[in-house]
Amino acid sequence: MIKEYPIVDELGNIFKIIQGHQITDEEIYNNYGEYPIYTGPNTIKGFWNQTIIKQDELPCLTYATKAFDGTITIQEKLFDANNTAVLIVKEKYKEKVLLKWFKYKLPAIFFNVMTSKEGVSYLNKQIVEKIEIEIPDINQQKKQIKYYEDLYCKYHVLEEYLEKLLKLREKIFETNYNEYQCRNIEVNKCIDYLSGTSGLTEEKNYLRLNNDGEKFKLLTGSLSINSNQVVKIKDSETIPKFVAKEGLLVVRKGKAGRTRYLEPGKYTLNDDAYILLKLDNIYDINLKWFEIQYKQDILSYASNSDNGTWNMTGFFRNVKIDIPSREEQDKIVKIYEALNKMIDKIEIIKTKFIELSKREIV
């Protein structure tokens, strides 16, 4: 006889745990049928003619045994499982627990007990079945379910709002302007560049610490605002310097083609980066607008690899641009920055939600 609530027991006593099995594409091809094969976070790998459970064992729970991401799913129909575990409530607990309560309760517990091998997390049956859990009465389970559902509802609203903001931001690139300073001109007619140097190595920068040179922020292949080192450069040194102007940092190696706007300041750079700058001519350009409007053009000249390079020569030889009025440029920048602020706030809230979802709510 099960004692009155709260009940404390191991998951192996509450559920029949089936670890799932490996199903190859060839096996699926040779045994095609009507039953879905779930893998990972409830994605379908294919369909075949076998099931891992019986009809009277439904409904049940499934979760990924490898690279668990917090997804636990209630299954209502027959299926098979590839790298996916199954939890089937044992007879003595069927009237005592709600599956939906476990769906929300277990992720935080699983995150705390996962093992890791070569950077991939695992949920072994031997670990899961020994997890001890305190089960409240049915009414309390219902209250906690409502709490989780309200929380996830708010999260999904945030995701939908974020998706709309991202789409709205993308539409900026499709803007039709009313007035233009010029149309279809070579980018090198209004934008210049400054190349970096291989002479700014860590060793050489360390030796400069005690010299009496002028201080400059060192730009590298990093886009982080806080990553700028300060180096001292003497007037006699033939090191590239960029002073008292705004610019656009372009990564040359690594995350090639990525950009960051530079406020006016005193900069130098190694050979992992370029600085794009405005030419002093008749064209009035807001460099923030230029980064927004021509981000994809800049990226398109980066090679596709983990250690790619940016083709500066190709960019300046081939790219042509339209320059709208300065007033319209500034308006786009204002809208874009406002959207980014809202997007950043939502991303922060989402991060906090994910952290919260990994904690056990009592």
Distance between the termini: 26 Å
Low-confidence stretches: none
Helicity range: 25-40%
Structural class: alpha+beta
So how many helices? 10
Major sheet characteristics: 6 strands, mixed
Strand order of the largest sheet: 13-19-16-18-14-15
The beta-strand count equals 21
Radius of gyration over all CA atoms, rounded: 29 Å
Mean pLDDT: 89
Portion in beta strands? 25-35%
Shape: elongated
Features:
single chain, 362 residues, alpha+beta, six-stranded mixed β-sheet, four-stranded antiparallel β-sheet, 10 helices, 29% strand, elongated
What is the fold's blueprint, element by element?
Elements: E1 7-10, H1 11-14, E2 15-18, H2 25-30, E3 35-39, E4 43-48, E5 60-64, E6 72-75, E7 80-82, E8 84-89, H3 99-113, E9 115-117, E10 120-122, H4 125-128, E11 132-135, H5 138-171, E12 180-186, E13 191-195, H6 202-207, E14 214-219, E15 229-233, E16 242-251, E17 253-254, E18 259-269, E19 273-278, H7 287-293, H8 295-299, E20 308-309, H9 312-318, E21 320-324, H10 326-357
Question: Can you give a write-up of this model?
Answer:
The two termini are 26 Å apart. The chain contains ten helices and 21 strands. The model has no long low-confidence stretch (mean pLDDT 89). Helix 5 (138-171) packs antiparallel against helix 10 (326-357). With 362 residues, it is α+β, with helices and mostly antiparallel strands. Strand 5 (60-64) and strand 6 form a beta hairpin. A six-stranded mixed beta sheet has the order 13-19-16-18-14-15.
Brief synopsis:
The protein has about 350 residues and is an alpha+beta fold. It has helices spanning about 10-15, 25-30, 100-115, 125-130, 140-170, 200-205, 285-295, 295-300, 310-320, 325-355, and strands spanning about 5-10, 15-20, 35-40, 45-50, 60-65, 70-75, 80, 85-90, 115, 120, 130-135, 180-185, 190-195, 215-220, 230-235, 240-250, 255, 260-270, 275-280, 310, 320-325.
